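Narrative of activities, Objective 1.

The group set out to show that a structural description can be obtained from nothing but a protein's sequence at a throughput compatible with the screening campaign. Below is one input-output pair from the validation batch, recorded exactly as produced.
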Amino acid sequence: MSPVPAKMSVVANGVSAAKLAELIEGFILELSFYPHGDIDAIRDGLGLPEPITGEASEEERARRLADAARGADTVTLARRVLELGPTYIEAKTLFDIQDLLWADQGFPQIPKRTRREMVRDLDISSQVHTPRHFMALLESLWLLETEAELVAAASKGVEAKGKVRLAIERNVLHRPVHGIAEHLFELLGAFDATDRRYALFLEGLIAPDLIRHEPLRRRTVGIMNSHLRLIGAELRETGSEGGYAVFNVVSLHGPHGQPKNIIFASLNKPDIRIPDVIANTVEIVGGTEDILVYDRPIGVNGVRWRDLQQWWKETRQITSDEEAKTSLYQRLASSLPRNSPPQNNLYRLYHEIHGTAVHDLPALLPEVWLHWDPKTVKERGPEALLRFRMDFLLLLPHGHRIVIEVDGDHHYTGSDGLSSPAKYGNNVRGDRDLKLAGYEVFRFGGAELNRPEAARALLQQFFRDLFRRYSVHLAD
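Output recorded for this entry:
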């Protein structure tokens, strides 16, 4: 394998791009053993250019594609390699790339002690009663055969069955007794696996395909959570699929509640009533076109522009994706205060900076209602809630909630135009309350965003750093 070029030895999204590049290059050079048709399919899947200079051998084509890969964004290319799946990529390489991409994505840390203590309380006999789904879960996350075992089986023309697979079939599938879980986890190497892989294994073990009895699923979740909550994590219900609850491992350091209604894109206080308190059903009584309510389940990916656009398209019965995108953009822009050019600049530049990539990025939600009180602040008095509305909200993957505020003069001056310590104090107190509730608050001074070109450079760097910190992939 040729050495990795220096330009690849950067860090992309906190991931070692050099190691990723080495894995990708090794995979591409292996294409010399593939027929031309498969090389064509892999080239197209990776989106790599291939200069046409007459007929070339498989080995020459593999070298050309490896050269082309050196000029591509490493993380983007790694994700495309994963999309090829096990049809073209061996399990060890696939898992190594996954672990590198997951390394800096902020998943809750699950210490080895917690893993062992949890597993000793688990009874996986019910999962083992669905062997096809159980083995499919194991194969999706763990190496059941070593490379030597795969090569030996291929040379003999037989199905590969390594020591780990045979041990699982003999000691787990055929003898599902209480206490076998620890033996299984040991065989798989789960106690030493990355936090994300271990979390995915827990989520898989409580999937409906493996446990079809809902009360048993929830009891198993309760056992896992009795250990996870001690280290600041939990399996939280994040949605539903086919009538079954979906659980994901999340950090307890963010907001605990699952978002149910996002009320946004309005400068006027909504006229709300709750027709069903038990079901937490919110109804906008008047001016329904003047305010938007996003009430769809929010999973581990947060709310991306693609999610918001699909919701808009379906609820407005729009047939064209392009029309939905344009009309939604305009509708959100219309909710911004006309007397705040900085706020308008931030919204416009967010979309201009990211272009078509914004489709898979978190949606920038304007004028989001955080609190709602039927009484006015004057009527409520000292108990009044602060910060009724947020300038912008981003719902990021894994429950991270980002508030962006644009501060004009009115944020720190009174009606007389003079500085107001009381008003400034309210803003600071509001920020503290949001942070304690699990929101991250970022403030911009209006003067920073008044000049579009200067604002563009500032916001481009800010969002790049923000998304890197929270492991939102931003393609170059």
